[in-house]
Amino acid sequence: MSPGSLSLYLHIPWCRVRCGYCDFNTYVLGSAAPDLPERYQAALLAELGLAAERLGPRRVETIYFGGGTPTLMAPPAFAALLGRIGELFDVAPDAEITTEANPETVTPASLAQLRQAGITRLSLGMQSAVPHLLATLERVHTPGRAVEAVGWARAAGFASVSLDLIYATPGETLTDWEHSVETALAAEPDHLSAYSLIVEPGTRLAARIARGELPAPQEDAMAERYLLADERFNAAGLAWYEVSNWARPGHECRHNLAYWRSGDWWGFGAGSHSHVAGVRWWNERHPRTYAERIEACAMPVAGSEELTDEDRHMETVMLGLRLREGLLSSALTASEQTRVPALVDDGLVTVMGERIVCTQRGRLLADGVVRDLLD
What we know:
40% of the residues lie in helices and 24% in strands. The protein is α/β, with parallel strands linked by helices. The strands form 4 sheets. Strands 9-10-8-7-6-5-4-1-11 form a 9-stranded mixed sheet, with helices on both faces. It has a 3-stranded antiparallel sheet with strand order 12-13-14, with no helix packed on it. A 3-stranded antiparallel sheet has the order 15-17-16. The protein is globular, with a radius of gyration of 21 Å. The model has no long low-confidence stretch (mean pLDDT 96).
């Protein structure tokens, strides 16, 4: 992204049901006050105006609708929000404009409408192709729906289509994971994300594991699943560019790269985080409270922090080592640079010109590599 460019994130917090493993800031749409979704959309439009006043002229290169399930919002609402962004900001002609979607919430007609509204990239939450694992995760779509949706998105003219997968779900076998990987690849997406299941405290999944109803994910299984995915994705022409993400050339998610390269972004909506010029802040978490703050003509900020030089250095190292482009050696302190040869000898990183890049083994142990490297 060019200097001074900006990414926008819009949080749509509604879901039809709340999955048992999810700890995101989401709310079941049917349980919300009848007028709250409309108030929330109006608040998003208003916050866009507040951001434009404070930022001044900025070139927007990526826009991302996340959730929740953004595609529970009608296509005309996307068009209204994108239209307002176009009025307030200088949106790049080739801007990447993504929406997340659960497979059961899209149809050929709705995808055509989303494309017409200006969405260029679709990210589908497939998670698994195995029925008993979808049931464990409390996903409501059928195993084949995500694959169908990829075809519908192609027909609608989306420039890029991504699938998300989760591995090491309780009860998953290696054969199950291999089936999910091969099913995802058969759909010929442009981008794949694969994340190990994290059992978050307070979720229904965590309670079931604590009661002994389900086994806890095993680290050895996580490594085994990751290696299989990396091998199969690369063989199919999707190269890794971030520890958990693979893409065909030119289909890397530019929005996420802006995060990983410590760019500027403004997050709109309940609980959204923002980062501009070394200052980070976050909005009120509940959609109702967020809307009330906006309706009172106030910024909906719940808290903020200014990153110290130490904070920025740590994030530069941590994020750089997650990327295939690697970390510039010059970003390290003199004492940190002396630790690089040992990491090379251990097979955790390689040095490619001026950059330090994690090996496949290093990617599996990325958090440890960062700890060993930092002062």
